[in-house]
Structures are given as C-alpha cells and as structure tokens.
Amino acid sequence: MDLFSLNQKTAVVTGALGLIGKKHCEALALAGANVMVADVNAQKSAEFAQELGAQHMGIGIDVTNKASVTNALNEVIAKYGSVDILVNNAAINDMFENPALAKDLSAFENYPLEVFQKSLDVNITGVFLCSQVFGSVMAEQGSGSIINIASTYGMVGPDQTIYRNECGEQTFYKSAAYPVTKGAIINFTRFLAAYWGDKGVRVNTLSPGGVENGQNEFFIHNYSAKTLLGRMAKANDYQGALIFLASEASAYMTGANLVVDGGWTAI
Length: 267
Fold this sequence. Notes:
Helix content is about 40%, strand content about 15%. Helix 1 packs across helix 8 and helix 5 runs parallel beside helix 6. The chain is globular and about 55 Å long. It has about 270 residues and is of the alpha/beta class. The chain has a single domain, classed as 3-Layer(aba) Sandwich (Rossmann fold), CATH 3.40.50.720. Strand 2, helix 2 and strand 3 form a beta-alpha-beta unit.
C-alpha cells in the first residue's frame, strides 16, 4: 500500500470547494498529503482546510489571473517547501438562474458569447496558467504529477435527450462550452506529458461521469439508463482514481485519460 501513500507530498487542488473538489481534497489528505485548498473564496477555503486538519491550508485564487496563481505558488512554497501534485479541478458548468429561460438560453442558436468566453477563460486558460506556474516548479525539481479533470463530454457529444422530462419536453440543452473546453483539456494533457516527460513530471486526465446531486428525478433516471452500472456517480466515486494518478502507483502512466464514468462511454 506504500505505492498509494502521499506522505511528505504537497498537493494543490483548484476549484476545491465544489462537490467533487472537496472529495479530492479529503482523499489527498487521507493519503497523507499536505493539501492547499484553492478556490475563489479565501475565507471558505481556509475554513475547509482546517476541517481537513491543521497542517492543511486554504487560499483564494483566480485561476484566470497569473498574479493570483503565482501568489498561490509562493504561499505553498513558503509553507511546505515544494509542490508535488496539482489537481486542475476548477471549471464552469452551465447554470441558469431562471429555469424558465434555461431552454432558450442554452440552445446553441441563442447561447451568449460572453458565457462561452467565460468558460474558455476558466476551463482552458485556468488550466493553462496553473499548469504553467505550478508545473514549472515541478519540472525544476524533477518530479510531480498534474491531474487535469475533464469529463465524458470531452470525449463524446452530449445526448440532449436526457434533458427531456417525463412529458418529452426539452428542459435544457447541454451547451457547446463544456464539451469544447473539456475536449481541449484532454489534448492539453497530452501536450504537457510530451513536453515535460523528460523532466519527471507526469500529466494525466481524469474523466468523470455525472454526479447525482439533487437533480430532477427524470434526469437521474435518463442519465442512469445510459450507464452500464445503472446509476449516476456518488461524489466520492473518484477518490480512488485520483489517488492512483497522484501517487507512485501510476509511476509509468503519463499522457493518459483515465475514464471513470460507470460505463457511459463504453457503448
């Protein structure tokens, strides 16, 4: 089991206060890593870090701003002396405040350019900047693991029928923004793996499926029916895969896309 140990390692998780982000942090802490909880809200990041344990730290970060990302690097180096693991988890997924307008606004013909651009900024530029800033330190020290969180929708097009309710009415469309950005992340992983392979920095993608989190019953039913396991994921279903990619258990793995989706993309 020493292969999975992260003792004496330091991990940075962006988007750490999200549903899966918190589970990433918990898993890394349980495996022995010092965890930097990095999210836009500095106070809540610090509070959650203390819940994990006194040795962990939280910080506010804007992944689209290089000065903010560099500040986070300086903070983690000052406290721990190194950075060994980066989990690029921060991302925007479509949310519309008014459900009555969700169908019209999410339709490709009407999808707002500014919303698309914001997704590009966070989901792609954010991963670029964090990888550049933290990964450069890993390359200098000759070791490190970068884990980019993508999605099944980075590999296949969205099935718009799962957003139809019991009456067959389309309630929402999955927009182009999320699949486009997550697809880009998968190939960005390959670029970084090739670029830093001789520096001892491993770069892999973790592609999760959808997590059940209080969605409408029709959606949960529709989604579950498309998976081989017949259910949506639980928030903690990705913890084992994350620790595998972060640890020496995956020492000969780089440039890969580890798909954990209940069989959604298998058929």
